[in-house]
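4.2 Preliminary Data

To establish feasibility before requesting continued support, the project team ran the inverse folding procedure on a target of 399 residues. The structure was first converted into the token representation described in Section 3, and no sequence information of any kind was made available to the design step. The complete token record follows.
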């Protein structure tokens, strides 16, 4: 915070740090912050929390004023990196060059051919579910599905998905109890596998993302091993937990709102709208961070150069200023739906077309088999302040 500018510390912003909040229901706190302290200073960790849609959007589109290179998570405040761990940690012009390189592999026309293999994966997982018995859809459906898709996307053996699961879990701090040595060893294994895969594709290219990256050149130079690892690890990690929790959280939301499920069963043409609404409703990525590059302001609140600002997407996604009086209501037909569940602006989710395709196919295949989804036990939510995780979701699916 700038010297000489006194900002009252917000007790409410401190509550954002409490893991118990996320295992329970954080939305009442988001509503309170948005209406009473939309730009709130969290003194203990030193960041501003933004909960209004307008403020989160304004920061997202302005990397010159709010950069990503100083970290995108609260736990990264004060860290610095020799080389960026992900593309999300870069700013223009480097970010623009990286993004241009990978964007073609992820545009809607590029992911459309994946429809058939993804549909086959969804169908096989759904056909293996017990009918009329309670099933925890997290391990049975939501965990394997995006991992199998990523294997397909990277052109690796789909049977490798359990290994990818272990690697991805180790890449996210706080996900698993493990010593730094254990985490380091798993990360090295992942690094070696993915960089090795890229080396293989460099000598015998195939029609997949790894080959495209392995052969790509920036200013005439091949990507370094560190850059290749940066991309490949990010694709593995970014597309995994996010999609997993959209599916788990989305199915729980439909079980909790039978009227909305009925609308979808009766009118499957609503499914693409439902995907957007479930992205808004579940907000699988709770928040990401930026750092002010100069003294500035957000909605009249002075922000000093170097101040971190946390964009709480999940709060912005229920902002009545944008979503009206029904902001707190699930509406599978909502249109327009300018949610920020996939981010906004410069770093807007690269995998958005794939995530949307996966979610649409899962809903289409599920509703072709089951017309009723009921809660069959307690839903367990994870304590992460970054990913809105569902760790267990016992559901009863009926035809
Ligand atoms: C429901 C699923 C998903 C959600 C909710 C989600 C959410 C997000 C969000 C909020 C951002 C913005 C990051 C920022 O502004 O700093 C982002 C960026 C990104 N996402 Fe996704 N994502 C999902 C699926 C995927 C998939 C399937 C992939 C790829 C396989 C992917 C790859 C990426 C990448 C590479 C970025 C960084 C883009 C950049 O820095 O320009 N995501 N995602």
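Position-by-position output of the design step:
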């Amino acid at each position: 915070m700038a010297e000489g500018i006194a900002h009252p510390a917000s007790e409410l912003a401190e509550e954002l740090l409490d893991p118990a909040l996320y295992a329970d229901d954080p939305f009442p706190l988001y509503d309170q912050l948005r209406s009473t302290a939309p730009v709130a200073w969290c003194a203990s960790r030193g960041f501003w929390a933004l909960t209004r849609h307008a403020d989160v959007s304004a920061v997202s589109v302005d990397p010159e004023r709010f950069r990503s290179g100083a970290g995108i998570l609260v736990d990264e405040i004060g860290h610095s990196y020799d080389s960026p761990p992900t593309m999300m940690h870069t700013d223009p012009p480097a970010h623009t060059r990286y993004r241009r390189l990978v964007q073609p592999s992820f545009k809607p026309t590029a992911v459309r051919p994946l429809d058939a293999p993804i549909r086959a994966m969804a169908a096989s997982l759904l056909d293996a579910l017990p009918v009329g018995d309670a099933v925890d859809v997290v391990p049975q459906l939501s965990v394997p599905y995006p991992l199998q898709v990523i294997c397909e996307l990277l052109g690796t053996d789909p049977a490798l998905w359990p290994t990818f699961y272990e690697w991805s879990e180790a890449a996210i701090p706080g996900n698993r109890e493990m010593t730094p040595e254990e985490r380091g060893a798993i990360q090295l294994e992942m690094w070696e596998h993915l960089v090795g895969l890229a080396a293989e594709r460099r000598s015998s290219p195939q029609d997949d993302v790894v080959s495209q990256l392995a052969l790509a050149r920036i200013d005439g130079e091949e990507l370094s091993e560190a850059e290749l690892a940066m991309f490949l690890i990010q694709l593995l990690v970014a597309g995994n937990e996010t999609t997993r929790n959209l599916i788990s959280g989305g199915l729980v939301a439909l079980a909790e709102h039978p009227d909305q499920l009925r609308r979808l069963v009766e009118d499957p043409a609503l499914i693409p709208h439902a995907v957007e609404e479930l992205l808004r409703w579940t907000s699988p990525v709770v928040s990401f961070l930026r750092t002010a590059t100069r003294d500035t302001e957000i909605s009249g609140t002075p922000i000093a150069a170097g101040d971190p600002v946390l964009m709480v997407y999940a709060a912005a996604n229920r902002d009545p200023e944008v979503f009206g009086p029904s902001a707190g209501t699930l509406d599978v037909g909502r249109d327009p739906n300018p949610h920020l569940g996939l981010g906004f602006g410069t770093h807007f989710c690269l995998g958005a077309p794939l995530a949307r395709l996966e979610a649409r196919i899962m809903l289409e295949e599920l509703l072709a088999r089951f017309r009723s989804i009921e809660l069959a036990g307690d839903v367990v939510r994870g304590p992460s302040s970054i990913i809105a995780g569902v760790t267990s979701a016992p559901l009863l699916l009926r035809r």
